[in-house]
UniProtKB/TrEMBL annotation:
It comes from the Bacteria. The lineage of its organism: Bacteria, Bacillati, Bacillota, Bacilli, Bacillales. Belongs to the elongation factor P family. This is Elongation factor P. It is found in: Cytoplasm. GO terms for molecular function: translation elongation factor activity. The gene is efp. PANTHER family: ELONGATION FACTOR P, ELONGATION FACTOR P (EF-P) FAMILY PROTEIN. Its main location: cytoplasm. Involved in peptide bond synthesis. Stimulates efficient translation and peptide-bond synthesis on native or reconstituted 70S ribosomes in vitro. Probably functions indirectly by altering the affinity of the ribosome for aminoacyl-tRNA, thus increasing their reactivity as acceptors for peptidyl transferase. Signal peptide: none annotated. One of its GO terms (biological process) is peptide biosynthetic process. Residues 129-184 form the Elongation factor P C-terminal domain. It comes from Paenibacillus validus. SUPFAM superfamilies: Nucleic acid-binding proteins (SSF50249), Translation proteins SH3-like domain (SSF50104).
Amino acid sequence: MISVNDFKTGLTIEVDHDLFTVIDFQHVKPGKGAAFVRSKLKNLRNGNTVERTFRAGENVSRAHIENRQMQYLYASGKEHTFMDTETFDQINLDQKQIEWELNFLKENMMINILSYQGEILGINLPNSVELKVVETEPGIKGNTAQGATKNAKVETGLNVQVPLFINEGDVLLIDTREGQYISRA
């Protein structure tokens, strides 16, 4: 058990038989009445974000999430196979569980699988990945105002807005949280 007074961003807790990550929290001490903690929580099972208020000093269960490094092997229909590189155990995840993450996954890529008491919650990608541009329009000289961009399709099928100087075959660094271009790799 952990007191809500000890909340930190990124802490995982169990409330009403659901798993949440603390995204934001605020200790409130009103002039009249008891103190409380206002928090913003992300559900790890369905991705929904909820706002929840706890009384100051209230206790909640802390959830210990297991983080196993695994290698992405291949896709077979809507199933995606991952392998533990130490034990060679393989697990399959449904496409619905990792829909956003598929925009950044390449075969043989190392990622972290998140699980809680044997239940697989999803995957945790690095903050940025290198992806190759497979399709983009050529940049036209003189067609620039400030910060002009064009559309580029990378090897995973993700469309990204990139500067005009990016060409097909370039390898880009892409932010996995926002799906945006960072720089050339």
